[in-house]
Amino acid sequence: MTGPVRLTTPLGDEVLRLRAGDRVELSGIVYTARDEAHLRMQKDGIPFKPEGAVIYHCGPVIGNGKVIAAGPTTSARMNEMEGFLIDKGVRGLIGKGGMGATVRNQLKGKGVYFAFTGGCAALASSHMTLKGVFYEDLGMAEAVWEIELDRLPLVVGIDSEGGDIFDAARKQAEAEFGKYR
Amino acid sequence: MKPDDSLHYALADATFRAYREAVIRLPPDVLRAIEMAAAAETNPVARGEFANILKNIEIAERLGVPMCQDTGVPVVYLTVPPDVPFTQSLYDSVAEGVRRATQEVPLRPNVVDPLTRHNSNDNTGRGMPAIHVRPGAKFTVTVLPKGAGAENMSRTAMLLPSRKDQIETFVVETVYLAGSRPCPPLVIGLGIGSTFDGAAALAKEALLEPLDTMTEYEQQILAAVNRLGIGVMGLGGDTTALAVKVKTAGCHTASLPVAVNIQCWANRHVTLEVKQ
To answer: Which residue, A12, A105, B21, B187, has most beta carbons within 10 Å?
Structure first.
């Protein structure tokens, strides 16, 4: 097994070479966004430069200007909300649990979805420095936090050619459970 | 109401310490189960996920911070010896310990009114903490912080008494429907028998049982669940669940109540003796 691919944001065409299952260590700025942040950005605009940007599905715990705990939230809630961001140039999404066919298609030829291990809030914050915040009125969990990553360990869940390891696992589970029917 | 005597202060303090310990450090048997599954895992992506989980556990312990940002809702079990009066003060003391833990650990304030969704900001509310009291030789408090991701995937069913084989099917179906959402690898609490509500209580209590040993029946259900191949975080692999633990109780001859309480890899619980 080869070592992880090291990438730094903003991301460019190098993401098109990634394949589902590749391990990546990601550095550079990412922006947190959950349901409310997506709605606000659709309405009032994207408060950062979207070209090559990476969105992290996360509602962190912030204290004393630091990231205390910042594990991923369930990405599927944002299944129908990513199109405008990808159209504007967002190249990466980070979250847990994978996403639906809509996002898989939107990412084709453009970007990837990274999985970060659910529940690993302490590990996440040990790779993070807080840089700023947008839309703070949405509250701590829903605001858009600007966070600098230092080699956060991720795995490519969905690649830019439609490869999707979550979908592969789902199909195996479906076939196996079918035996009970 | 503040605990007003040494006994109740001791219970509030033990609840606080048990909650803090529970969100920071996993019980040794749970950690061993994760380490053993990680060593046996053959899927390279899953091995990477296990490495992240084990590193996360180590960092949380070293820095004294919660291992997951969902610090749960407080589920509390008390054993009360004959010399401790069973009064409302016990409940108030546990709530006081939860409020202190919320401030001092700190915990994420998760408890809201179910309809208005108003957050109490101190992790207490009507009937919350959920407190279960039993007689015992020693005065102990157990704190089991229950996160929502896994709890939301739990299910209960009233099966046909003639179809015991459907118990395994129901467990496998529950895990299948949950997919990646409850943050596998899972610990599965399975309550069989009692009543509609009693089965669910048994399923949750099963999560407190040691994971080191499993009966043949538990191992059989675990193997069936792991054949689903959902894997760590739904990314595929050998390990969808770490353990299945069963608790049973007597039930009506015409009933077969079954409940599956789903728990993520962070099967957090701590028991402390309340020293007066």
So the answer is: B187
Nearest to B242 by CA among B71, B23, B28, B36: B36
Is residue B238 within 8 A of residue B228, CB to CB? The reply is no
Lookup: tokens for A175: 């076939």
Q: Residue A1: its pLDDT value, please? A: 52
The predicted model scores a pTM of: 0.94
Mind listing the pLDDT tens digit for each residue in B85-107? 999 999 999 999 999 999 999 89
DSSP A8-22: ESSP-GGGGG--TT-
Contacts of A172 in chain B (CB under 8 A): 228-229, 236
Can you tell me whether residue B62 is helix, strand or coil? helix
Interface of A with B in 17-46 (CB under 8 A): 21, 23
Residue with tokens 């007689």: B135
Provide the domain count of chain A. 1
Angle of helix B88-104 versus helix B6-24 axis, rounded to 10: 40
Integer Cα distance of B105 and B151 in angstroms? 22
pLDDT over threshold 80, residue B3:
no
Residue B1: pLDDT band (50, 70, 90) is: very low
Domain ranges of chain B: 6-25+67-146, 149-263
pLDDT tens, residue by residue, A41-91:
999 999 999 999 999 999 898 888 999 889 999 999 999 999 999 999 999
Known active-site residue A38: yes
ipTM of the complex as predicted? 0.92
Please report the pLDDT score of residue B69 as a whole number: 87
- The gap from C-alpha A147 to its chain's centroid, in whole angstroms, comes to 13
Give pLDDT tens digits for A34-52. 999 999 999 999 999 999 9
User: What is the H or E stretch that residue A132 is in?
Assistant: strand A128-134
β partners of residue B140: B79, B273
Q: In sequence order, what are the residues at sequence separation of 6 or more whose Cβ sits closer than 8 angstroms to the Cβ of residue B269?
A: B22, B27, B142, B143, B144, B145, B207, B208
Q: Do A169 and B234 count as a contact with CB atoms less than 8 A apart?
A: yes
User: What sign does the CA torsion over B47, B53, B57, B58 have?
Assistant: positive
What is the CB neighbour count within 10 angstroms for residue B72? 25
Q: Which of A15, A32, A38, A134 is catalytic?
A: A38
Rounded to a whole number, what is the distance in angstroms from the first to the last CA of chain B?
Answer: 19
Q: What is the CATH number of the domain that holds A53?
A: 3.20.130.10
By mean pLDDT, which of B3-7, B183-187, B219-223 is the weakest? B3-7
Quote the DSSP letter at residue A1: -
